[in-house]
Amino acid sequence: MTGPCQWDWAVQSMTDPCQWEWAVHLGLLHNNNDNNNDNGNGNDNTTTSTANTLANDTIMEEDTDILEPAEVTSPKTTNVSPATSPNSEGVKRIASTARNEIAKAKTPDELKEKQKKRKDSKSELPHSLPDTFKSGHATSVTPTLHTSKSLSTSFLLSEKELQSCEVLRNLSTPALYEHALKFEEKQGTHLTSTGALATLSGKKTGRSPKDKRVVSDTPMESAVWRGLGSPNIPLNKTSFLCNRETALDYLGSLERLYVFDGYANWDEKHRVKVRVVCARPYHALFINNLLIRPSSEDELAAFGVPDFTIYNAGSFPANRFNDGVTSSASVSLNLESRELVILGTNYAGEMKKGVFTYMHYLMPTRGVLTLHSGCNVGKDGDTTLFFGLSGTGKTTLSTDRDRPLVGDDEHCWSDDGVSNIEGGCYAKCIDLSAEHEPEIFQAIRYGTVVENVVFSDRSRVIDYHDCQITENTRAAYPIDFIANAKLPCLAHHPKNIIMLCCDAYGVLPPVSKLTIGQAMFMFVSGYTAKVAGTEDGVLEPEATFSACFGGAFLVWHPFKYASMLAERMVKHGSTAWLVNTGWTGGKYGVGSRMQLKYTRAIVDAIHDGSLSEDLVTYHTTGVFNLQVPRACPGVPDNILDPSLCWTDLENFQATLRMLACLYQQNFAKYETAMNSPSFDANLVKAIRDAAPDVVLTR
User: Which of 656, 694, 657 is CA-nearest to residue 507?
Assistant: First the structure.
């Protein structure tokens, strides 16, 4: 309807209830006087864009009660132009369509039954939640969308393939809850007892690193780390475009799309505008929690063109016949077009780490170091970085009630200090308890997304110890769900850098102080260990090395990041520590996991200066030549020396040498790069000198 008179004449020409119901159901009777005005040239302007037409159809079908004839009042009009007369093409088209649909119906009762079903379906939506759930994230920015009039933001994407969909941009948390509970029931989406939204990611319950690709034939290729140890499997540009077209064609075929526009990096000097286009409300809520949200409607309106775009087609598969694609899952990054395409996986973490990977490329070009680390600050503003792979305690230890949290996973270190890349946290939930991790436990409430957890059908209480779906259960929540989060998420240059490992062999000390060379050796190595039961086929402890404690997300060579880290540590006087949160008294299956209270005591001692060389003495271990304190408040002295916890000292020494050999074997793949003139020779020598004293046999 383009003018008030068209509405008026349509009202007068349809007196049968069936005509009314069908016309409204088809979206034919929209009184959009404010938006669809005469085009100014005297012609009938009833033809609207495909995107608007389909959006209106979707709204009327799924989100608006069908109007009864008596409820409609025709607008008052005084002038009737040729374009809005009862003989106009627009009105004729409405009447004709209504008559055709009425002719298809067998009885008026059918229409009433369809109307009843639509109303019943709508009544199932949780339009209101208990007061205990109304503690959601206050910085989400969306228009008011919870009326029966419209759920569309009237937002159009520039991609032509996506212009026929209803585009829902930056929906609020309540709106995304409604959509997820209405449209994702078959995907296992439910409300839990705390108000958190529980969902399933399907077949993929973790990232798919073997399916990750970085486009090769771009001007950025010289910056990309390729070859032995690199995560950046090449994909030609044509194959990327095929993936992109597949994703856009699928997304464009849907009735509705979810768009989130937000930011990466709290440092506004180096902030990146990120757009995510996705099919599932779960994904939209996830990324709303994990990125930095616009702070106002005006800021959202001024967002403009994104710097980086993610097209997430979810479970829709990639074409395996596409050159370079080897499975139905594909996560492909194009640095030139600044786009990430996700196919064949619903695991939301792919979006988070896709942004992180792009930041790993972009920030070093600006002289900013990207870090896979947690970060918190003390009462005096002293900053600590926590490096560590999954399962080492990075999130747990950086979330400390006595030290405000800057972030739990991804950071930048610029000339001005440390900044969090994200606006939220993505914490592991396995064995989560209020006793051991109270801050994270309390953050799982209304607004949080929990993935692949098991909960009671009746009470909806989550069982965090149940790993029948996966051990990689996760919770995604805004950072301000942590009571003592530091907002804005910015901090001074680090005083301490803690490198965490979970040594399942039980031979590394729980804490040791590192030289710059040792710190860079440990940083480039990125060691932890898998244990039996975590993956199929793992029967014994298995060493895992991930460069810079985040090798899967690196774009440049690891030595690029190591050089930048060493330079900053020297400039700002940062002290590095190696903290083992793994086993003591023997390897996995013989010894026991280091008690969390001991690890927390060690971290507290680092922060309060109790491990200062003025207060305690250190001794040097064999093989790795680590400096280990002889005493630490809250930790038994024998725990500090792993050799004292083993009953078989000979077995301890053999296991220690075996682990040293694994370090050496892993580091050998960087030998060629270490000879490159692009890396500082003195730093390279310091790293070589820091390697374990063990003869590597081939």
Answer: 656
